[in-house]
Design brief:
single chain; alpha/beta; Aspartate Aminotransferase, domain 2; 2 domains; five-stranded mixed sheet; 12 strands; binds pyridoxal-5'-phosphate
């Protein structure tokens, strides 16, 4: 019954997350989760949250967590914002900075939540094409024509943009916000967090969901000039004063403090990523050079011969039937490709066995 829906709700095309199928024999390589558990210190911190802490509202400004993040990244407390996952921060940022009546510039192949937020807030889009090799050229953005957002590394390609190229764009693009979505930056891209004090229009979002194994906790962070952070706080405090609960604040602090565990799991993922890339290439797949915790691979064999399904879709379905979940989009320039999240080395060996079966 849609009788009570407003026209806005009727017109929405919501984001569709990857399938969350679970079970003993399921290998889940479809939502870019971390295959390793969070640090034991995080689990201890969660266990130590007292009933008294839960009885009360959490610190609405998450000061201790933001202080830990500020110290870790070498910025000030006033440069840090935290939210209930980086998706929430993006939603707040779109409202705070992109509803200025100018079209938002973002790549044609990118994180599919951006058009959803544009739709939600009636923001026009200016779509910027990736190059033929799927890389993202900063020169395609028109400085000062409208705000800009892109992930670095991009999703689902996994390709990273060098810091110098972003810096060059920032020198010209001074009149609107540039939001760099660094959800996967800890797996190989060069972060631009260190530039937030140089450019008052640079906002950088990151997440605890990927490199820090805390997708289930919902914890995101943004870095930017004090005035951008204050803008986010104004929107947050007009929507939900307590987006980061007490458990998530404790978990986030413990995760930041256990740097060696974090670095060790990152290097295990990178090792499995390199192994999987090599294995797929040796089987004729084209694999883009990933700086993320997933790879983007073109499935060999011509597509749509005599109206057949693309080979990538066939393989996607075959893997799914065998309990190996990967991501597939039947869209122009994507329909021959699979996005495969990096699991444990055993997950990736099983993936290869299924491909070979
Ligand atoms: C590019 C990109 N940005 C942001 C997010 C959101 O992450 P989260 O809301 O878990 O912090 C994702 C999640 O997959 C992503 O791929």
């Amino acid at each position: 019954m849609t009788k009570f829906w407003t026209d806005t709700v009727k017109g929405l095309t919501p984001y569709v997350p990857g399938e969350q199928r679970s079970g003993d024999n399921i290998i889940k390589l479809n939502t870019n989760e971390n295959p390793y558990p969070p640090s034991p210190e995080v689990m201890r911190a969660i266990g130590n949250v007292s009933s008294d802490v839960l009885r009360r509202y959490p610190d609405p400004e998450s000061v201790e967590l933001r202080e830990a993040l500020a110290a870790y990244h070498g910025v000030a407390l006033e440069n840090v914002f935290v939210g209930n996952g980086s998706d929430e921060i993006l939603a707040l940022a779109f409202l705070a900075f992109f509803t200025d009546g100018k079209a938002l510039q973002y790549p044609d192949i990118t994180y599919s939540f951006y058009p959803v937020y544009c739709d939600l807030y009636s923001i026009e889009s200016q779509i910027v094409s990736l190059e033929a090799d799927y890389s993202l050229s900063m020169e395609r953005f028109v400085p000062n024509a409208g705000s800009i957002i892109f992930p670095n590394p991009n999703a689902p390609t996994g390709l990273a943009t060098p810091r110098d190229s972003i810096d060059t764009l920032l020198k010209k693009h001074t009149e609107q916000v540039l939001l760099v979505d660094e959800a996967y930056a800890d797996l190989g891209a060069q972060s631009v967090v260190s530039l937030v004090n140089e450019y008052p229009n640079l906002l950088v979002s990151q997440t605890f969901s990927k490199g820090r194994s805390l997708a289930g906790m919902r914890l995101g962070v943004a870095f930017g000039d004090k005035s951008l952070i204050e803008g986010l706080q104004r929107v947050k405090n007009s929507f939900n004063s307590y987006p980061v609960d007490a458990v998530a604040q404790a978990a986030g602090i413990a995760s930041i403090e256990d740097d060696s565990y974090y670095k060790q799991t990152l290097s295990q993922i990178i090792e499995s990523r390199d192994w999987t890339t090599e294995q797929l290439r040796s089987r004729g797949f084209e694999v883009l050079a990933s700086s993320a915790n997933f790879i983007f691979a073109r499935v060999p064999r011509p597509t749509k011969v005599d109206g057949c399904e693309p080979a990538a879709h066939e393989l996607f379905q075959r893997l799914s039937a065998a309990g190996v979940l990967v991501r597939y989009w039947k869209k122009p320039r994507l329909e021959d490709w699979l996005r495969i999240s990096i699991g444990t080395s055993s997950d990736m060996s099983k993936l290869m066995d299924c491909i070979d079966a």
